[in-house]
Queue: 2 jobs
Job 1
Amino acid sequence: MKDTRKKDNIRENFESLFKNYSDVIYRLCLYKTSKEEVAYDLTQETFLRLWKTISSNKEINKPKQYIYQIARNLIIDYYKSYKTISLDKLQEEGFDSISKVSSPETLSEVSMLKEIIDTLDQDFRDVVYMRFIEGMRVKEIAEILDISENLASVRINRGKKQLRDKFR
Amino acid sequence: MNITKKQFNKAKKNFSKNSIFDAQKNKMLSSILGNDGNISTQPIISPLSSYFMIFRKKSFAVIVGVVLLISGTSYVSAQSLPGDLLYGIKTNIIEPVGLTLRFNDDKKNEYKMLLLQKRVEELEKLRERGRLDDNSQSVSSEATYKNINELENSAIFNKEGKNMTVSEKVKTYNSLIDSDFKIETNININNNENLNTQDNFIKDETRKDLEENLSELKSNDFKKEEEVEIEKDILLKDKDNSPLNIESNLNIENKLPKL
């Protein structure tokens, strides 16, 4: 009886996390890979790994950070598996890395965002993306990136300033 | 490509609308959780339960250790002889426990006989090993007395009030041990004689009292004859309801001076 209740609790927790973060992770994967199918697969893989962890009774102190970290690692693995070089380098060489995106609108949107954000300093890219694209709060960003709220706030402000300088 | 702030904000707004359709989400969730949605997990153990499990494991290990220690000690002590370190455990703990575990009186008596036999065998072993000294004999004698007392309190006598098995064992025991430590027992005394002897003892004592009193009376020259008679009656009636015929050669009336 108790086991059933505990199992139900685990499932509920997982479903709650899936409901709250599946779209966020999907958009992150879509932003990084510019491919909807790949973004879908990476999202599913992210939550599959999360489920395996939760269901094996391991305690996760910061679920948001954990989910984000899984997604980022999977994205890195995806790039490694296809032996691709960084988008920056591809763009320098004139190669349009964005291809096979389902809708042209999405393609152009991603391309535009990436064009701006990827020109920022490395430290500011993630915080700017989270803050201005996903609309996350400073506390949330700090938790995900495992940095202090102060630092997150400083990076957001500096990134915002750099962003403004990019617009004509 | 030069992008305006307006274009950036528009792209940002449209991009943030990207999401997984509900149907796709349900499909994704089902494939993650499994086809039937069952959670294939190990039983969940709460911290308190895990504590108790650890505690149970430890306590089980302790219990097993204690049982092994007790059984080991019991085995070793069972082999011990008078004068050994564990002999006290054998005679004071293990053997009494063995007696308690026998619920039938016949079984108890059998066990008591067995213990007496063990005392004899212990002495024989001590003799063989050349360890029969005062200390070991004293310890053995003490344990044997304890066994004998238990036997004396048991209904092990035959119709004649004897138990030949016990008397033989006691004889054998006494033949192996020094005179200072020999066992004395009244197990082979006839029970009927015991009772008669007791009654006769009372009558003998009464007779002695009376004779002493009469001798006192005899020596008292100033006692009147009547007083003597009265005292005689009192003495007799006090000791026994039925008058006793005192066999005495004393002729009191003749000896007393006439007043």
Job 2
Amino acid sequence: MRGIPLFKVRTLKNVEIQELKAFCQVKNIPGRTSETKAASTGLKYERYLELFEAQIDDPNASLNAEELDAFMFEQLCFASYNIHFMYRITNSFFEQGMTEHEVTQFLQGHLTLKLNQNLIDWVESSQRIDVATSRVEFDSTGELSNLHILMKIGLIEQQHGKTNFFCAVNIDLKSSILVIKLDKNQVKDANTTPLEVVERISDALKGEGEHGSLFDCLDLNFGQLNEHDALRTIYNLYAHLSQEAEKILNQRMEDDTVDRIEAFLKDIGVQNIQDDYIEQIKAVVYQDITSTMDEQIFKSGWVFKFRFREGDHSQASSRTDLRQPVYSNKAFWQLKELIHQTGELEEGGFHWNLNGQNPDGGFVDARLESKNGTIIVHFYNNTKSDRKEKEEFVIRKVGENL
Amino acid sequence: MSYEKLVKIYKASGCENIFPIKYVSDLHEYIEWSLKRGKRSLSPFKFARIAELSLEESVTFFMYFSKEEGIFELERFVECPSTSCDARIYLDDEFHLYKQLLCEECSEYHSVEIISKYIKVYFRLKDDFTKCESVCSKSKKSDDPNSMHDILRGMSEGLKPNSPSSLSLTERLLEEGDDEPVGLDTILQINQTAEEPILEYDWLLSMMKRTHS
């Protein structure tokens, strides 16, 4: 017998029951249906915890400590968040040339980071910021690419009872971007706001304040993004997708369309035919073609939402209900040129195909917004599976365009 | 979308016991007209005016064409109740099994019990029918949906120029509200009061049980 219990049920409540069910199925854990029946979902979590404890206790079981830890880490560090705040890293402990060994040694030496601590061995403390574990990733050349830190930052009352309030941080050194991840609902249930939480965590990460001692060894400095940089980044991501779409739509139009439009305008008596008139009518044709087109045509993906600031005091936006291409909306075509001229966008909703050439290679739906000196990324619920890969994709995209 | 296909459904669904066959040709014209305009959702409100039926009769008629082998799928949604969210939550066929639904835009959960009173429905033509139409449609690519000239040119001959009601049909065509959804409660009520429920989808029967209790 281990004697020591696993992590607490209030940590497990951060994982959706469907995920637990699916995980037990994949690992073929006996008793996964019969022993997890309960009067309420809250009690169901207790049953699952007991099931896991029994498995870990049994050396011959279908599930071992590493597998359970891997699952919990994926859930707690990636899948359970829906709002990500991105900042640009300006300084860190890491220097080019540090080997994998040197990095690991360094981080292991700072016990507050709990490098590679297995989640099932995590003993909670009552500190306001309580590190659960941290993990490192190296690229193919052995250089440090990511440092992930998972921390508990509170205890809240939620739907299924007392639940641990978590925050995960992804320090991406390849893109020089730091991401602070939260669950909006947990923030609300904690009677605070996302910004307040982000401020608290940021201070600690920079080695300041009450909990600065946890992380000051990392020598981290990161700052608010310049507003124009953020707006331009979102614009760049938007432009890449929309220009690809325009090219495809242009190919679909018949060669003599412009001539026919001119002839039509002459025919109905328009005296002074301007390019702009022809563009407006072409836009109508584009709208029509898009509405009948198969989304498969857009290899890289598409834009499903955009919000654009016109001058100091007004905004325009357009989006589709079900995250389909926005190109069949009139507003898109009317604002397109204006957006290209300013080269800045407040908010964009992007459907990206992870494999640019193959629409069946998975996708990510994300909404990016420039606000309060950061780019906030909102992931949609359908993006829960393979969330780690999708998060990395978005970080890379932002890093490339920042 | 052939007239014959509609007649087949008209007979198989039991519609022929309630409505005279004249309405099937009204429906056929309305469908042709809508598809030419790229409109996949048909409005029972508009159909009521075209066919001179009451709204309730019109919805009932549409329901007969919404069974498994019918032409309509019932697209359900509810406006997200969160005060700062303007998104719609679209409901799948299992929504009635959950206690709460998630709005993907604002990440808030809402009780199914409470939102069930606010569910709206579009009668949406099934995919197989619209694909055929875009291939065999006679409209030219350069037809401008905003051009009155093109609309009038593309209009079917059979539509009456003047309905007995005080406003003419041409004006009706220009009216927006083509995509007006129907409240789910209207559909539930019709299903309830019919001798036998017209539609038997799980979610619908589940909703009926709730409102009845």
